Amino acid sequence: MSVIAIFLGGGLGATLRYALGEALAPPTPPNFPWVTFMINIVGAFALGAVMTLLTQHRLRGPWGKPFLSTGLIGGFTTWSHFIVEADQLISGDRTGLAIVYLATSIVVGVAAAAAGAHLVERRARSQAGGR
Amino acid sequence: MWVTILVFVAGGCGALCRGGLDALVSARWRARRHGPAAAFPAGTFVINVSGALVLGLVTGFATAHTAESVQDFATIAGVGFLGAYTTFSTEEWHTLGLLRKNAAVEAWNVLGSLGASLILAGLGLWLGGQL
Questions:
Q1: A5-43, pLDDT tens digit by residue?
Q2: Which of A6, A44, A88 sits opposite B16 (nearest CB)?
Q3: How far apart are the C-alpha atoms of A13 and A103, rounded to whole Å?
Q4: Residues 1-60 in B contacting A (C-alpha not used; CB under 8 Å)
Q5: In angstroms, rounded to a whole number, what is the distance separating the alpha carbons of residues A116 and A48?
Q6: Which of A49, B30, B92, B115 would you call most buried, defined as having the most Cβ atoms within 10 angstroms of its Cβ?
Q7: Which residues 74-103 of chain A have a CB within 8 Å of chain B?
Q8: According to the 3-state scheme, what is the secondary structure of chain A?
Q9: Does the reported pTM lie above 0.90?
């Protein structure tokens, strides 16, 4: 069952990323890769929230970790395109922009994951306090 | 239309490969390491670095060969399979966890993942262009 959930989630995440790329016409390599950047930041935020929900046992079964975390969000975000785009910036003589892309993705990505986790933790605390 | 369907199938397969390989590598890594090194996310590291190398190859090949069949293959294998196989969000989630508990391993994880991925993807881009 979780094999099917991972497959469906991963397929959906990859298709969503593909559709966004087609719709937003990704910038050609010498420019800042905004589409991948936004996808990865949104995904990092969502994974922070989902992983925290999982530790609170509020998401269970194959539609929890297998579908949402390993499948959908894992399949939506991409490390390989992030790296290849940075390499293409470097080979296009835009090493400075490549360093900015790498650093902002990592730093903003960690901050987004922390924000997603914090949001869920705060909601859980306010719900527990309200009872 | 069929490219979109194949991106979905390839994305599902990529996520399944990541789930399987991560479980395998992580278990083996933790069984043989003690102390802070055991916290290193070896599974995600192996997945992201290997995926960056192969996407470099695919992208290099597709840049050198403009035939429509090559572009479709690059979309299905690159955007579909490799995009879903590698993951940015999980990397950021591990980084956040290590940042809270183990800053030294976190630095090794971020710099090691970025460095190894950039070098191998660069090699892949060059090699793919020679094929």
A1: 999 999 999 999 999 999 997 666 578 999 999 999 999
A2: A6
A3: 24
A4: 4, 7-16, 18-19, 48, 51-52, 54-56, 59
A5: 5
A6: B92
A7: 74-84, 86-88, 90-91, 102
A8: CHHHHHHHHHHHHHHHHHHHHHHHCCCCCCCCCHHHHHHHHHHHHHHHHHHHHHHCCCCCCCCCHHHHHHHHHHHHCCCHHHHHHHHHHHHCCCHHHHHHHHHHHHHHHHHHHHHHHHHHHHHHHHHHHHC
A9: yes
Task: List all residues 6 or more positions away from B71 whose beta carbon is below 8 Å from its beta carbon.
Answer: B62
ipTM of this predicted complex?
A: 0.95
Measured in angstroms, the CA of A128 and the nearest CA of chain B are apart by 24
Task: Report the residue of chain A nearest B57, measured CA to CA.
Answer: A84
Nearest to A79 among B52, B79, B96 (CB): B52
Give the whole-angstrom CA distance, residue B93 versus residue A73: 12
Domain boundaries, chain A: 2-130
Q: What angle do CA A42, A40, A126 make, to 5 degrees?
A: 35
Residue type, B60: G
Q: Tens digits of per-residue pLDDT, B53-78?
A: 999 999 999 999 999 999 999 999 99
